[in-house]
C-alpha cells in the first residue's frame, strides 16, 4: 500500500498552536508519538531522520471530526440517494486525522457492524477511528444488544449516536426513553473508561432542545454527557444551544451547514462560533464537526433543489479559517473547537487534540497567512504533502 512510518521526523520552524500559541518551534516525532517540542531541536544522532522545513506554516493538532458518515448516509430520496463509503484521502486532505463514524436515518439497511468494519479498515490505512453505536431511532441498533454492552465490550465504540431529536425522521421517543439511553451510555462509559457520550442529532422540529433540558433537569445526568449537533441549522435552535452551553453543556456546530441564500434560517458555522462567544459562551463549550459523507441537497442559483451530493469534511478547515480570518477569532481559540475541545468531550485528550510530548503525532500544517492545507501527519506518518495525498486507501 505505502511506505512505513519513519522512526524519526523533525518538523522545523513552524508557528505551533498546541492549540495554545507556542510561537516558532521545532517538533520531533518518534514513530507514532511526539517526542519533543522546543526551539532549535537537533535530529537524533546516528538515526535516519526526515527533516521537513515548515517555515511559513502554522502547525496544529490534526483535526478531530466527531460526526462522519463513514459508510455513507442519506437515502431519504430513495435507494439511489444512499451515499457511498468514504475513502481515506478524502479524510486526510481535509486535515482530519481522527474521525468518529456514525449511522444516520437508515439503521435498517446500514449496520453498526459494517460501520465498525469500515472504522477498522481506515485505522489500518493510517488514521485514528472511533464509532458510535446506534442510529436515529430508539430502540437503537447495536452489535451486542445494548448501547451499554457495545461501549464496554467493543474498543472502538465510545458512545451512542447519532440519535435523532426534534426531527420528523426520529422514532418520536418520549423524554424518558431518551433519558434511559443517555443513562445507559453514561454507565457504559464509566465502566470502560470512555466518554459514553450521546451524539444527538438536532432536527428542525418545534420542540427544539426542550427534551434535552428535561433529560438533565433533575441533575443526575450531566449536560456534558450529550453532544447536541447541527445546532446552527436554524435560529431558534441556535438560541437554545447558547443557553445550553452557558449552563455547561457542549454545542456542536456543523461545518457542513451553510445558508443557500438570504432566506435561509441556518447560520454560517464561522459566524455561529463568533455569535456564541459574543453571547457569553465559554470557548471550552464549543465544538465543530463536519457531518461529512452524508447526503446534501444541491441548489441552483435561484435556490431550487436540483440534485443530491455528498457532504465533504473539508468544510471543517474552511470554517476554521473563516473563524480566524473573517470573524477575527484568535487562532488558538478557533483551533480548540476542532481539536482539544472535541478530544476532551470524547475523553481522548491528551492522547489526541494537542501538540505535546507523548501525544499522538497527529499534525496539520497550514499556510500561516491563508490557512490553506499543506501537510498532514497521522500517527507519525505523512499522509498529505503540499495539499496532495501521499497515502491512498486500498481501493483508491
Ligand atoms: Zn444528523
Write structural notes for this entry.
This protein has 396 residues and is α/β, with parallel strands linked by helices. It contains ten helices and 19 strands. It has helices spanning 88-92, 112-125, 147-153, 175-192, 210-215, 235-246, 269-278, 315-325, 331-338, 340-345, and strands at residues 8-17, 21-30, 33-38, 49-53, 57-61, 63-68, 96-101, 128-133, 157-165, 197-202, 226-229, 251-254, 286-289, 295-299, 305-310, 363-367, 373-378, 381-385, 388-389. The strands form four sheets. Strands 1, 2, 3, 4, 5, 16, 17, 18 and 19 form a nine-stranded mixed sheet that branches. Strands 6-7-8-9-10-11 form a six-stranded parallel sheet. α3 packs parallel to α4 (175-192) and α8 runs antiparallel to α9 (331-338). The longest helix is centred in the middle third of the chain and has 18 residues, at 175-192. It is globular, with a radius of gyration of 20 Å. The model has no long low-confidence stretch (mean pLDDT 95). Bound molecules: zinc ion (ZN). Zinc ion (ZN) binds next to loops.
In short:
With 396 residues, this protein is α/β, with parallel strands linked by helices. The chain has ten helices and 19 strands. The N and C termini lie close together (10 Å).
Terminal CA distance reads 10 Å
Q: Would you list the SSEs in sequence order as H and E? A: EEEEEEHEHEHEHEHEHEHEEEHHHEEEE
Shape: globular
How many helical stretches? Answer: 10
Draw up the topology in text.
Elements: E1 8-17, E2 21-30, E3 33-38, E4 49-53, E5 57-61, E6 63-68, H1 88-92, E7 96-101, H2 112-125, E8 128-133, H3 147-153, E9 157-165, H4 175-192, E10 197-202, H5 210-215, E11 226-229, H6 235-246, E12 251-254, H7 269-278, E13 286-289, E14 295-299, E15 305-310, H8 315-325, H9 331-338, H10 340-345, E16 363-367, E17 373-378, E18 381-385, E19 388-389
Parallel strand pairs: 1-4, 1-5, 6-7, 7-8, 8-9, 9-10, 10-11, 12-13
Antiparallel strand pairs: 1-2, 2-3, 5-16, 14-15, 16-17, 17-18, 18-19
Helix pairs in contact: 3-4, 7-8, 8-9
Amino acid at each position: 500500500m505505502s511506505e512505513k512510518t519513519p522512526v524519526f521526523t523533525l518538523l522545523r520552524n513552524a508557528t505551533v498552536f498546541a492549540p495554545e500559541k507556542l510561537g516558532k518551534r521545532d517538533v520531533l516525532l518518534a514513530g507514532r508519538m511526539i517526542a519533543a517540542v522546543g526551539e532549535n531541536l537537533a535530529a537524533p544522532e546516528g538515526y535516519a531522520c526526515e527533516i521537513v522545513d515548515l517555515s511559513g506554516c502554522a502547525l496544529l493538532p490534526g483535526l478531530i471530526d466527531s460526526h462522519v458518515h463513514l459508510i455513507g448516509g442519506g437515502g431519504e430520496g430513495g435507494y439511489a440517494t444512499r451515499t457511498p463509503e468514504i475513502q481515506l484521502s478524502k479524510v486526510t486532505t481535509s486535515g482530519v486525522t481522527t474521525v468518529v463514524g456514525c449511522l444516520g436515518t437508515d439503521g435498517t439497511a446500514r449496520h453498526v457492524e459494517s460501520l465498525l468494519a469500515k472504522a477498522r479498515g481506515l485505522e489500518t490505512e493510517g488514521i485514528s477511528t472511533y464509532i458510535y453505536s446506534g442510529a436515529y431511532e430508539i430502540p437503537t441498533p447495536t452489535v451486542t444488544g445494548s448501547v451499554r454492552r457495545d461501549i464496554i465490550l467493543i474498543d472502538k465504540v465510545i458512545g451512542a449516536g447519532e440519535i435523532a431529536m426534534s426531527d420528523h425522521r426520529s422514532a418520536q421517543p418520549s423524554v424518558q426513553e431518551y433519558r434511559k439511553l443517555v443513562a445507559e451510555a453514561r454507565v457504559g462509559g464509566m465502566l470502560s473508561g470512555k466518554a459514553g457520550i450521546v451524539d444527538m442529532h438536532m432536527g428542525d422540529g418545534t420542540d427544539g432542545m426542550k427534551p434535552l433540558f428535561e433529560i438533565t433537569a433533575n441533575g443526575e445526568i450531566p449536560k456534558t454527557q450529550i453532544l447536541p449537533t447541527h445546532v446552527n441549522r436554524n435560529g431558534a435552535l441556535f438560541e437554545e444551544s447558547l443557553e445550553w452551553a452557558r449552563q455547561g453543556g457542549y454545542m456542536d456546530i456543523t461545518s457542513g451547514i451553510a445558508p443557500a441564500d438570504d432566506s435561509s434560517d441556518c447560520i454560517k458555522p464561522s459566524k455561529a462560533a463568533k455569535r456564541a462567544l459574543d453571547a457569553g459562551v465559554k470557548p471550552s463549550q464549543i465544538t465543530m464537526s463536519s457531518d461529512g459523507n452524508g447526503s446534501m441537497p444541491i441548489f441552483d442559483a435561484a435556490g431550487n433543489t436540483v440534485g443530491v451530493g455528498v457532504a465533504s469534511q473539508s468544510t471543517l478547515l474552511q470554517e476554521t479559517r473563516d473563524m480566524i480570518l473573517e470573524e477575527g477569532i484568535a487562532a488558538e481559540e478557533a483551533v480548540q473547537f476542532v481539536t482539544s475541545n472535541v478530544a476532551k468531550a470524547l475523553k481522548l485528550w491528551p492522547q489526541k487534540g494537542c501538540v505535546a510530548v507523548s501525544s499522538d503525532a497527529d499534525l496539520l500544517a497550514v499556510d500561516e497567512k491563508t490557512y490553506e492545507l499543506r501537510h498532514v501527519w497521522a500517527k507519525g506518518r505523512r499522509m498529505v504533502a503540499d495539499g496532495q495525498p501521499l497515502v491512498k486507501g486500498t481501493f483508491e
